[in-house]
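Section 5: illustrative case.
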């Protein structure tokens, strides 16, 4: 099959391209390079520079490359920015998806994988979040992902398109230093940045109802996440009319304090964290049930938090050589 990977020049998308091509699938990247980097796309993979909002360009790309499946990762992803610029987030993430789905159904492409997020759950009041846990997103970003899931599912039901919405939990790590996350929006790179600057990493709130008082999250290695896309893409290709919603996590909670301790140990900085006030809207605990994808598709994560931090650090040092400890 030939898969169009929208957002394939981004952090996660580049890992999906790598996993797909290593598994023997053909990949074509479609990316406007707004936050992506063309150097992440291997020379043998065609890169079409364009926005998913450009209906003509999407339609031409689907036809020219004889696309038989789409993995849609292209989106804006910063929660705080989405609060300030909701219209732009709805345009890129919802209108962009609608435009893409219109072209996909016109071209009768049979399979569609959508990048959703644990942000759809908002502030869950359960220890382990299953796909049946009610979705109450807290930000425009989370809303666009939930609206995206609805659009994808409704289109599948109306047209027979096989669909999957993948709810990623906290993504970290890298396959190679070059493919590392260069943004500073997630905990691991945020801590790296503070350590490199000579500052204390920050904990936002240590009075949550969790074992050490700091927020608990479920971290997933980007290489595992990319492998999950291959599993899901193949499942869709072999089951017409599929309608999947899947958590992609490890089912293991790790606190912010534990993460900072491990990062300090792995990087050799050993700088104790400073406690800052809680950030509004941060849930105490968000941990996935990873049971559905294991039972239905036989997929489970292989890498642990140690692997994530170690690989992410090689990437950080690659992009910030001054950070290396002698
Ligand atoms: N990184 C995470 O922790 C995380 C967690 C949950 C969900 N997600 C989702 O995963 C997806 C990928 O995230 P990422 O971390 O790789 O982000 P990223 O910013 O590295 O990648 C997004 C890619 O999409 C491209 N893009 C953005 N808007 C586009 C448009 N209109 N048309 C074409 N290309 C466009 C960008 O240039 C970039 O290459 C997003 O949908 C994001 O919401 C990410």
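Designed sequence:
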């Amino acid at each position: 099959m030939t898969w169009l990977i929208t957002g394939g020049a981004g952090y996660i998308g580049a890992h999906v391209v790598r996993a797909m091509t290593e598994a023997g699938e053909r990949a074509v990247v479609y990316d406007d390079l707004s936050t992506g980097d063309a150097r992440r796309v291997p020379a043998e993979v065609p890169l079409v520079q364009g926005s998913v909002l450009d209906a003509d360009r999407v339609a031409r790309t689907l036809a020219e490359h004889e696309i038989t499946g789409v993995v849609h990762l292209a989106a804006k992803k910063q929660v705080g920015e989405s609060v300030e610029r909701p219209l732009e987030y709805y345009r890129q993430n919802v209108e962009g998806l609608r435009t893409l789905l219109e072209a996909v159904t016109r071209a009768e492409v049979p399979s569609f994988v959508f990048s959703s997020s644990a942000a759809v759950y908002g502030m869950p009041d359960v220890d382990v979040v299953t796909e049946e846990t009610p979705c109450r997103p807290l930000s425009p970003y989370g809303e666009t992902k939930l609206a995206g899931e609805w659009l994808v599912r409704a289109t599948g039901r109306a047209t027979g398109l096989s669909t999957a919405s993948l709810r990623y939990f906290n993504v970290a790590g890298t396959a190679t230093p070059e493919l590392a996350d260069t943004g500073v929006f997630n905990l691991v790179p945020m801590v790296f940045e503070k350590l490199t600057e000579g500052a204390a990493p920050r904990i936002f709130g240590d009075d949550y109802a969790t074992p050490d008082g700091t927020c608990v999250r479920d971290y997933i290695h980007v290489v595992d996440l990319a492998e999950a896309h291959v599993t899901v893409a193949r499942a869709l290709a072999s089951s017409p009319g599929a309608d999947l919603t899947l958590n992609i996590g490890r089912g293991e909670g790790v606190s912010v304090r534990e993460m900072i301790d491990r990062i300090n140990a792995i990087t050799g900085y050993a700088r104790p964290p400073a406690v800052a006030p809680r950030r509004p809207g941060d849930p105490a605990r968000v941990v996935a049930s990873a049971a559905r994808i294991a039972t239905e598709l036989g997929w489970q994560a292989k890498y642990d938090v140690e692997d994530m931090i170690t690989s992410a650090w090689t990437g950080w040092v690659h992009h910030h050589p001054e950070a290396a400890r002698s």
